[in-house]
Design brief:
Elements (H helix, E strand, L loop, with lengths): L3 H50 L8 H4 L3 H76 L4 H32 L8 E4 H16 L4 E6 L4 E4 L1 H17 L6 E8 L4 E7 L23 H4 L7 H11 L3 E6 L5 E8 L17
Parallel strand pairs: 2-4
Antiparallel strand pairs: 1-3, 4-5, 5-7, 6-7
Helix pairs in contact: 1-3, 3-4, 4-8, 5-6, 6-8
Length: about 350
């Protein structure tokens, strides 16, 4: 992706870094060369001074002269200068490396942001224009034509369906924004995960009708400390995701059970196209969608799994995706559970984020 706003500072930085590196490297090499020359001159000068001041005894050689206290002093000064140059060179390389690392991370974040912005624009242009066009078309037919009551009711129903889809997309965008800037408010309380999951599945079945087989295995009286609205959103988004990315005649299965480590495990499996290994971590990023024509042609905002991952993390849980057999995907969530207790009575909100 070409972006001159990013490339220009990168090129300037690396040109300046190259000039500075070559200059400092040349300076260091020159200083090392000068240091070793000075050492040699100092040793030669010391040897000559000894020869002048004392008559060399018979049998003594240069090795004896160079092992004296004066030679040790020369080497001490030389080593101190060498340590200084090593320290200076290492510090410079450290600063230069830190600058390059900082630049790389900044550019990577900017590149990712640009990709997310492009995906956002594509999502808005497709996911919003489609229901808006449907609403306009349906209401236009009702307004401009003398339709029979049955047809008029159908047109209004189509408009309402598109309006709900548009409202759901707007809610997801707002939810993602709140999760990003940590402005989402939660009410953490003891929640019957079993009862809540059954309710979400019931609504899901009513919404999709008889077009899809949905099987469940839900253990009774499983409790978690969590926000009921957030938990509803987690389960609803996973079911919606399984519904969108698999065929109508395929099966969706949901399991809720307690593990041996006192964790609550939620598994939602589909028999769709599946997710390649290289995309299994990426699918939880905002606006990310697997880059195949089959999945990109499916209606979706690329926000559902992002929201799920954020909400699961908020509940101190983990989420991962693995392959289903023979085809499809299984999304597995684990979060801390609390002791078994009788099911809680109460009603749940009708809003599914």
């Amino acid at each position: 992706m070409k972006n001159t706003g990013i490339l220009r500072p990168i090129i300037i930085f690396f040109l300046l870094s190259t000039v500075v590196f070559i200059s400092c490297a040349t300076l260091l090499l020159f200083n090392f060369k000068t240091l070793y020359e000075n050492k040699k001159l100092s040793i030669d000068a010391y040897r000559e001074e000894l020869i002048k001041e004392e008559a060399m005894q018979e049998g003594q050689d240069d090795t004896y002269l160079l092992s004296t206290q004066g030679y040790e002093q020369i080497m001490r000064v030389h080593n101190e200068s060498r340590v200084f140059l090593y320290t200076f060179g290492g510090f410079f390389l450290l600063i230069l490396g830190a600058g390059c690392l900082y630049l790389y991370r900044s550019v990577s974040r900017q590149h990712l942001l640009n990709i997310q912005q492009q995906n956002f624009l594509q999502t808005i242009s497709h996911e919003m224009k489609t229901p808006i066009g449907s609403i306009i078309s349906s209401l236009s037919n009702v307004q401009n034509y003398d339709l029979e009551r049955q047809m008029e009711t159908k047109m209004v129903g189509n408009a309402m369906t598109s309006a709900r889809r548009l409202d759901g997309l707007v809610n997801k965008i707002l939810t993602a924004a709140k999760l990003d800037n940590n402005s989402m408010t939660y009410v953490i309380e003891e929640t019957d995960m079993s009862m809540l999951t059954k309710e979400v599945v019931r609504r899901f079945k009513n919404r999709i009708g008889e077009t899809r087989q949905v099987t469940t295995q839900i253990e009774e009286d499983l409790l978690v400390d969590g926000d009921s609205s957030a938990l509803i959103s987690i389960i609803g988004n996973l079911l919606d995701n399984a519904h969108k990315y698999s065929d109508d005649d395929s099966k969706i299965s949901l399991k809720l059970f307690q593990t041996k480590k006192n964790k609550i495990s939620l598994e939602v499996a589909d028999e769709g196209l599946g997710i390649p290994d290289e995309h299994k971590e990426e699918v939880f990023k905002r606006f990310y969608r697997v880059g195949t024509e089959e999945t990109r042609s499916t209606k979706g905002s690329g926000l559902g799994l992002f929201i799920v991952q954020k909400l699961v993390t908020m509940h101190k849980g983990t989420i991962k995706v693995k392959d289903n057999t023979p085809k499809g995907s299984i999304f597995v969530i684990e979060m801390p559970g609390i002791k078994y207790a009788p099911a809680l009575e109460g009603e749940f909100s009708d809003e599914l984020a």
